[in-house]
Amino acid sequence: HTEDELSRSSHSNPGKSLVNGIKTNLASNSPKSSLPVPMGPPVYVDLAYIPNHCSGKNTDPEFFKRVRASYYVVSGNDAANGEPSRAVLDALLEGKSQWGDNLQVTLIPTHDTEVTREWYQQTHEKQQELNIMVLASSSTVVMQDESFPACKIEF
Question: At 83, is the secondary structure helix, strand, or coil?
């Protein structure tokens, strides 16, 4: 939709907005939309960022059933906010088990967290069964006065 179409839609329907082409009620406080997700074939991509720093607020097994990536980036590093979420990491296992083919998937955590380490250790056999590899890296990038952990990805 063009900006004019979106603008007209919101003026003609006060309190409603278009999200992914579907009219939604802006007054809804629900963290997950109650609107049905249109069915369609899965989307295959090389690299996908797990939404919202791998928070369980809006990522579930359906995401991993529909968005099939060779690489998933997990950037959560805020235990107080449940990032990364163990439930989301488990959802990857559940979603991937529905793929039907055993394509290799690489999970790329950008931070070393207790949640990620425990999940890795407790589900290692399931990861192997589903052809999921967790990429661990102790590389550090130094830029000006700052340093941070990093992973190198080559395609």
Answer: strand
Say if CB 42 and CB 68 are below 8 A apart: yes
- Residue in 84, 91, 82 with CA at minimum distance from that of residue 123: 91
Please give the backbone phi and psi of residue 131, each rounded to the nearest 5 degrees, phi first: 65, 45
Tens digit of each residue's pLDDT (9 = 90 or more) over 42-93: 999 999 998 877 778 888 899 999 999 999 998 887 877 777 889 999 999 9
Q: What does the angle CA 56 – CA 57 – CA 59 come to, to the nearest 5 degrees?
A: 60
In angstroms, the CA 106 to CA 39 distance is 26
| Spatial separation of the C-alpha atoms in residues 56 and 61, rounded to whole Å | 10
- Residue type (1 letter), 151: C
C-alpha to C-alpha distance for 62 and 98, rounded to whole angstroms: 10
